[in-house]
Amino acid sequence: MTNQDIVAELLQSIGMPVGHGLPEDVARLQVHGNKVVGTHLLPGLLADVEEQPDGIHAVIRVKNGVKIAKPIHICFGLLPERGIQHIRLEIVMEEHATASVLAHCTFPNAVEVEHKMDAVIQIQPHAVYSYLERHVHGDKGGVLVIPKAKISVEEGAHFKTEFELIKGSAGKISFDYEATCKEKSILEMIARISGKGEDTIQIRETGLLQGAHARAILKTSIAVRDHARADVYNALTAAGPYSRGHVDCKEIVQGAAVARATPIVEVNHPTAHVTHEAAIGSVDSKQLETLMSRGLSEEDAVELIIRGMLS
Amino acid sequence: MGVLEVRNLTLVLDNKKILDNLSIDFWQGHVHALCGPNGAGKSTLANTIMGLSGYTDIEGDILLDGASIRHLSVDERARRGITLAWQEPARFEGLRVADFLLAGAKNKRRSVAADALKTVGLEPDKYLNRAVDKTLSGGERKRIELASILTMQPRIVLMDEPDSGIDVEALEQIFACLRIFKSQGTTVILITHSAAVLRQAEHAFLMCNGRLIDKGSTSRIYRYFEDKCIPCAHINEPVEEETK
């Protein structure tokens, strides 16, 4: 297979039609297993990618004051049924830089695939960075996903990460993100995951609001069905004066699935404030009966409610 | 014979008789109003007709076109043409208005959802992609719920307090919907305390303590309701001669 064929197949698996080329003003990085199969950079966006036996090591840097207008498209994937992909990632957003990333992680045929990511993300003062990671898995549930990230959000910077795994079988996920926020910075960590069959989902998100007026939200929405299990640990500590935070965890449980949520909130300064809410249970009966009173079967109504919650 | 017949309906909740041997006929294509003091059993009757959970353990029967629906689930009743507009509509986090409006629609075209929104006085461009969640006011959700019923084109609509949380202007749009239902031959059952809403109906029923006290023209029933039920000297304790 040529690199072009691999890219075409990766893109097809995430719903982009074959032959659909990204415009010239869209930066991209496409990695299959441990091979870089496509790159396109823009002025002010640097990517130093090294292929390693089990994956890649990449340093991505957006230079001081550079604003990347359109989302950078990243695709990590593995087409064979078995394999390992270990992504070691360093991201540096220099001062006043702005960029967003749309990352697809696609394992459409996975029977026994391990996808690990170890990321160190540095958002320098007044930089803005958002990262949407969308996973596309096959139906066999044979993916072990272990993303870990250490994030520092410097003064006045804004970091937003969204992790989405709604299509296909989640497999086993062990997610661990840890962020430290300086003065007047903003942190948003959002995860939306659907689990079924024998999937197991572990989410661990921690945020430390060190600086004055730092703000954060940790938001997790999970739906588990069949025998799937979800365990969510969200911890937010507000230590900076006037720092504000909110932890929100919603889990819908169907069938023999099990969900657990552990929100930890800690306040170390008298002017700081953190709130949390966690809701775990079956689908709300009023929502369900509203849709059923429009003629939807119970199954279709549950599906629509979950789709909405995870959207 | 009505299109929808409630026959000797009794419902007991927490050892209290909420509906007490109630019999009412609703007529095809007519707009009916159910009024009565708080706790009379009006909303309970609507919930029981719809078959909501907690309202199915009944004595008596509910007939649609002469056939019992008492053992049918909510969705089966809906597919036979019955639906309910809640007094306090549900919120759906993340569910787009367009998807909500088309969930039970016979015609799934987006233009159908847009037209329904226009009918209830909401601009499609502003609302179709919003979520049916807490960012909408109670009045907006109420109108969106009504729009979802318009797209469904039901045979029978139960509307629980259609004016609650609604401003005067929006109320006119809700009345416009009632006229549409009427023109389509839809049977409407309004649950209300409001004279303005009651005036939209062609027939009225007065309930108290789970029983039917009186029925007749809307003006007569409303006069009775105003005179004797607010404040009600016999709230939930109808005097014997009135129940005869």
At a glance:
The complex is a heterodimer of chains A (311) and B (244). Chain A is 10% helix and 57% strand. Chain A has 311 residues and is mainly beta.
Verbal overview:
The complex is a heterodimer of chains A (311) and B (244). Chain A has 311 residues and is mainly β. Chain A has one domain. Chain A has three helices and 19 strands. In chain A, helix 2 crosses helix 3. The radius of gyration of chain A is 20 Å and the shape is globular. The model of chain A has no long low-confidence stretch (mean pLDDT 92). By secondary structure, chain B is α/β, with parallel strands linked by helices. Chain B folds into two domains: 155 residues, Rossmann fold (3-Layer(aba) Sandwich), CATH 3.40.50; 66 residues, no CATH class. Chain B is built from ten helices and ten strands. In chain B, the strands form two sheets. Chain B has a six-stranded mixed beta sheet, with helices on both faces. Chain B has a four-stranded antiparallel beta sheet with strand order 2-1-4-5, with helices on one face. In chain B, helix 3 runs parallel beside helix 6 and helix 6 packs parallel to helix 7. The longest helix of chain B has 16 residues. Chain B is globular. The chains are: A mainly beta (311), B alpha/beta (244). Chains A and B meet through helix 2 and helix 3 of A and helix 2, strand 6 and helix 6 of B.
Elements of chain B, N to C (H/E) = EEEHEEHEHHHHEHEHEEHH
Helix/sheet category of chain A: mainly beta
- CATH architectural arrangement of the largest domain in chain B: 3-Layer(aba) Sandwich
Order of helices and strands of chain A: HEEEEEEEEEEEEEEEEEEEHH
Number of helices of chain A: 3
Shape of chain B: globular
Per DSSP E runs of 2 or more residues, the count of β-strands of chain B stands at 10
User: How many domains make up the coordinates of chain B?
Assistant: 2
CATH top level of the largest domain in chain B?
Answer: Alpha Beta
**Backbone shape of chain A:** globular
* Total number of helices of chain B: 10
Share of helix of chain A, binned: under 10%
Helix content of chain B: 25-40%
Overall pLDDT score of chain B: 90
Strands side by side in the biggest sheet of chain A: 2-1-5-7-9-11-13-15-17-19
Main sheet properties of chain B: 6 strands, mixed
Number of spatially distinct domains of chain A:
1
> Roughly how many Å apart are the termini of chain B?
21 Å
Radius of gyration of chain B (CA) equals: 18 Å
Task: Tell me the distance between the termini of chain A.
Answer: 35 Å
